[in-house]
Amino acid sequence: MPDLDLHVERHPATLRLLVEDKLRAAIVEGRFPPGRRLIERELCELTGVGRTSIREAIRQLEAEGLVTVVPHRGPTVTVITPGEARDLYAVRGLLEGYAGREFARLRPEAEIAALGRDVEGFARAAASADRRALIAAKTALYATLMRGCGNAVVRQMLTTLHNRITLLRLTSMSQPGRLKDSVSEIRTIAAAIVTGDGDAAEASCRLHIARAAVVAIAVLEQQSNVPTQVSRGRHSKTE
Q1: How far apart are CA 134 and CA 153, in angstroms?
Q2: Which of 95, 105, 197, 227 has the fewest CB atoms within 10 Å, i.e. the most exposed one?
Q3: Rounded to whole angstroms, what are the CA distances from 12 to 7, 49, 51, 78?
Q4: Do 148 and 103 meet the contact criterion of CB atoms below 8 Å apart?
Q5: pLDDT attached to residue 1
Q6: Does residue 7 fall inside a structural domain?
Q7: pLDDT at 3
């Protein structure tokens, strides 16, 4: 992996966090794909830090659901099954729908301004089709949504969900036509929030997530050779 630069600058007070951030980014961006073994020796060579720091970072990523410790194999990047994905997206739809409604009700000035910037940033990233830019733009957008809703508990729960769903985000966005639709859906969400239409904001958030779920789950089912269970009826129910 000659192009994989995970080297970490040594700052004792923040070394663990830096290692976590590097490994998390490598997983989220797909450089460490689902199912890949995370071998301590290799990670030490890539990051330039010791085994203790690697182990601490792996424990944190395991707590976030990004890493799974497999008996007799050690830590691996988590593989999400179609059933798990369906559950994750269902809960995410409920929480983000609520977040969108509350954001529209509160409309904090600073976050409304940030939302406009984030939507345009995501549109630019979608036009470029750059994987890292897409993930960064979508992450910034969701961070603004979580801040704007004004609910710290929802923000904490969504952060945990997003850490896991990010493993699927590139899967759904890489499907033909999905990026264009995603940009349109995000613009609809933002417009509802800006105008203070809570009903529309909630419905738009849930529809956006339902559509992403259909695409991601279908891909996962194909990959695992499981017959697709996503039907029009189920789609309607999810939305």
Answers
A1: 26
A2: 227
A3: 15, 11, 14, 29
A4: yes
A5: 54
A6: no
A7: 66
- Residue for token pair 């801040």: 147
Residues of the chain with pLDDT under 50: 226-239
What is the C-alpha separation between 4 and 49, in angstroms, rounded? 16
Return the structure tokens found at 193. Answer: 């929030």
- 38-65 pLDDT per residue, tens: 999 999 999 999 999 999 999 999 998 8
Half-sphere exposure of residue 199, counting CA atoms within 13 Å on the CB side?
A: 0
Tokens, residue 46: 């890539």
Q: What CA–CA distance (Å, rounded) separates 64 from 23?
A: 12
DSSP label at 228? Answer: P
Q: Are 4 and 46 in contact (CB under 8 A)?
A: yes
CA distance 187 to 57: 36
Tens digit of each residue's pLDDT (9 = 90 or more) over 90-109: 999 999 999 999 999 999 99
CATH number at residue 63: 1.10.10.10
Alpha carbon distance 72, 135 (integer Å): 32
Whether residue 163 sits in one domain with residue 113: yes
88: containing domain: 82-238
